[in-house]
Write a structure and sequence with these properties.
The complex is a heterodimer of chains A (302) and B (441). By secondary structure, chain A is of the alpha+beta class. Chain A is 71% helix and 9% strand. Chain A has a 4-stranded antiparallel sheet with strand order 2-3-1-4. Chain A is elongated and about 85 Å long. Chain B is α+β, with helices and mostly antiparallel strands and 441 residues long. Chain B has 3 domains: 202 residues, Multidrug efflux transporter AcrB transmembrane domain (Multidrug efflux transporter AcrB transmembrane fold, Up-down Bundle); 88 residues, Alpha-Beta Plaits; 117 residues, Gyrase A, domain 2 (2-Layer Sandwich). The chains are: A alpha+beta (302), B alpha+beta (441). Strand 4 of chain A pairs antiparallel with strand 12 of chain B, so a sheet runs across the interface.
């Protein structure tokens, strides 16, 4: 199997797959939940069918703009507003119960915008530190590879693949947010960070085999051939592992609770992308990079 | 590590048994004179699983010296804990968080749904001060309301809620505005009693004002009778036009003491238990189904080794849950997700090993040697990939908040245990089965 023959094509595919999501990110961004934006969310349940506009007028009567309102089954409403003071939301609650007897406030949540900014900031900080730490770790763990190959380039390629996976998940959820109204919450961040961990996990397994084969295989083999051989050797493992994880996540998605669906979906997209990228992004990138360095040195020595 | 196969097996069995006792037992005991409390009655469940309220408070430390800030916030945390304990609800989970800008206290109370009264209870400072009417002011019962409502007529005595040892809510029989209504009875400490008597003796027939926090008007202003001054009636009583709920909440605040720093509610959430409960059951069922399919897959693909790996996954699950119980880890939905993902990583380690063994056999190594080589050579990949995942979970734990931390913690514990189960345990099993002389497979 000559997997690496089409290395440039894989990189093009990786980039092309990213493009719609990135455009969507630039145009629409992510549909952020209250975790990020700050605001109040109220969930009411009713024992009767309720007219949306009457509910909205209660809020407007208190001088509160309703940002979104979504009805489920006609007897459950989720209303989102700017952050509200306690007495305002209490007064609204009394009016709702007054107007619709049997109404119940299932949950109410008010997040100060400060939390939102900080949460987002923390996520980016975490992403930065994680990339740096993993880059350092791979550079250290792979320090023994034979010259002229560099452990830093292995680390950097793993990070490239990782960023590919992270941005793919972000992009897809930007599209899902715009077209399907799926919101991302603080849990989603956890998912993206997990995807990062998994992505690197997968790349390392492939790279580890490349490292081993660089020592073991005949010196006459060029780098691309070694990488190709390593990928083929680890293919069975890559597929098996991804399958077990995907099975678990799929059963969580299909059978699991509503609260974790977005989270699991993000993981599912990320894990699939992670397996793909370890073979079709990290490795081709590494081969092209090492080849370039090799060619440059070769020219110099001539 | 340990060479002797039977010593290894005994160790594995021992760890499994201890973990099972921890997981399935319901022990509750203290060691070292109560310094170490071991509570194994149940897995601690987070709010998203049990339902309840979460309140995030910001502590205003602007009036506190920088060096004392942390101490003040910690003691505020303790006082909030005492207030909730006095309310008698289930164990609250309270953490203080220092952010760059401010100090936060996050209070989670499982099983409580009335968020307003919870906020009122924990969010207010309750400093009781005793004041007397200035000596220069001529006291006459006719001018009662005029005097007590004038801020200038009161003088602080230095007696505060700190001089009290007890606060009780009783129903009074006195006549007046709130006859038969709830009253708050104050019990002084010995020094407090002395201080109060000294002042009371000079003020017989005059009112003593009980002031709460910075409220300019007294909560209650009983007239000091001779009996009260001489200690015949032992303690003063706060009467007022309040209902039982207010009286009780007030008495809890007085008893628990004042918050050393003012706090402001930043965020409050009510989390429905039914939502959590349903979600948990579903997710638990989903996780078990996923695990079952993974086991079938492993057995299908790797035969006897797959069976042994599945057995070790079982041990793995029991050990991890036992560790959750001991630490204790508050189990949340993201936590369960982290746990299930770590099962995936544990399985990956075994797949790496089994694939490697297959490869070594393909390269014409004798089977026994191929097994050893498989474990040894797969170790590099397992080590590097798991360390990178541990690094990620460490960073998540450090920089994340709330549920994200829970996820990172369960993932990290899961990864560490998976190294034990997928390498030590599986290797022991495979060697054991091999040494029993079964050479067919």
């Amino acid at each position: 199997m000559k997997v690496m023959k089409y290395k440039k094509l894989y990189l093009v595919v990786s980039i092309v797959v990213l493009i719609p999501g990135i455009i969507s990110m630039l145009l629409f961004g992510l549909k952020l939940s209250v975790d990020f934006t700050g605001g109040s969310t109220f969930k009411y349940s009713f024992d009767q069918d309720v007219d949306k506009s009457r509910l909205i007028s209660i809020f407007e009567g208190e001088g509160v703009d309703v940002e979104t309102i979504s009805m489920q089954n006609g007897n459950e409403a989720e209303i989102r507003t700017k952050p509200l003071e306690n007495d305002v939301s209490n007064s609204i609650k009394q009016q709702v119960v007054g107007l619709f007897p049997g109404a119940e406030l299932v949950s109410s949540q008010t997040v100060g915008p400060a939390v939102g900014k900080e949460t987002t900031k923390n996520a980016f900080i975490a992403l930065g530190w994680a990339s740096l730490a993993i880059l350092l770790y791979i550079s250290y763990a792979f320090r023994g590879i034979p010259k002229p190959y560099s452990s830093f380039r292995f680390g950097a390629s793993a990070i490239i693949a990782m960023l590919h996976d992270a941005f793919l998940v972000l992009g897809i959820f930007s599209l899902l947010g715009h077209y399907a109204g799926i919101e991302v919450d603080a849990l989603f961040m956890t998912a993206v960070l997990t995807v990062i961990g998994f992505s690197v996990h997968d790349s390392i397994v492939v790279f580890d085999r490349i490292r081993e084969n660089l020592r073991k295989l005949p010196k006459s083999w060029n780098f691309e051939k070694v990488v190709n051989h390593s990928i083929v050797e680890t293919l069975s493992r890559s597929i098996s592992t991804s399958l077990t994880v995907i099975i678990t996540l799929a059963s969580l998605y299909i059978l699991g609770g509503e609260t974790i669906k977005t989270f699991v979906l993000a993981l599912l997209v990320g894990i699939i992308s992670g397996t793909y990228s370890s073979i079709f992004t990290a490795s081709p990138f590494l081969v092209l990079w090492e080849d370039r360095i090799f060619l440059r040195k070769h020219k110099k020595s001539k | 590590m340990i060479k002797n196969i039977y010593a290894r097996l005994i160790l594995v069995i021992l760890i499994f048994l201890v973990s099972s006792v921890v997981l399935f037992g319901s022990h509750h005991f203290s060691l070292f004179d109560g310094r170490l409390n071991v509570d194994l009655r149940e897995l601690k469940r987070g709010l998203d699983l049990s339902g309840g309220v979460r309140i995030t408070l910001v502590a205003d430390v602007s009036k506190i010296e920088t060096a004392e800030e942390e101490k003040a916030v910690e003691s505020a945390k303790e006082i909030i804990r005492r207030r909730i304990d006095l309310l008698g609800v289930s164990e609250p989970h309270i953490v203080s968080i220092k952010t760059k800008e401010d100090y936060r206290i996050v209070v989670e109370i499982p099983g409580v749904e009335d968020i307003e009264s919870a906020v009122a209870l924990i969010g207010e400072t309750a400093q009781l001060r005793f004041k007397i009417v200035n000596k220069e002011i001529e006291w006459s019962p006719d001018k009662f309301f005029e005097i007590i409502q004038d801020v200038d007529s009161w003088k602080d005595t230095g007696i505060t809620g700190a001089d009290l040892v007890g606060v009780d809510v009783l129903f009074g029989q006195q006549e007046g505005l709130n006859a038969g209504g709830p009253q708050i009875h104050l019990k002084f400490s010995r020094e407090g009693r002395e201080k109060f008597s000294n002042i009371a003796k000079e003020n017989i027939g005059r009112p003593v004002g009980l002031f709460l926090d910075n409220n300019p008007f007294p909560l209650s202003a009983p007239i000091i009778s001779e009996d009260l001054a001489e200690g015949i009636i032992s303690d003063p009583v706060i009467t007022g036009n309040f209902d039982l709920k207010t009286a009780r909440s007030l008495s809890i605040q007085l008893r628990a003491g004042a918050l050393p720093v003012p706090v402001k509610v930043l965020q409050q959430e009510t989390i429905g238990a039914t939502l959590g409960g349903e979600s948990v059951q579903k997710s638990f069922f989903a996780g078990s189904t996923g695990l079952l399919i993974v086991i079938i897959f492993l057995i299908f693909k790797y035969g006897r080794n797959g069976v042994l790996a599945s057995l070790s996954l079982l041990i793995y699950t029991v050990v991890v849950l036992a560790i959750f119980k001991i630490i204790p880890v508050v189990v949340t939905l993201p936590g369960i997700a982290g746990f299930i993902l770590s099962i995936g990583m544990a399985t990956d380690a075994n797949i790496l090993i089994f694939e490697r063994i297959k490869e070594e056999i393909r390269w014409n190594k004798p089977k026994a040697i191929a097994i050893d080589l498989g474990f040894d050579r797969a170790w590099n990949s397992i080590k590097d990939s798991n360390i990178s995942s541990l690094i990620t979970s460490f960073i998540l734990f450090q920089l994340g908040t709330g549920p994200v931390r829970g996820f990172a913690l369960t993932l990290a514990i899961g990864i560490l245990v998976s190294l034990f189960s997928s390498i030590f345990v599986v290797r022991t099993f495979i060697k054991l089965v091999g040494s029993l002389g079964d050479e067919r497979a």
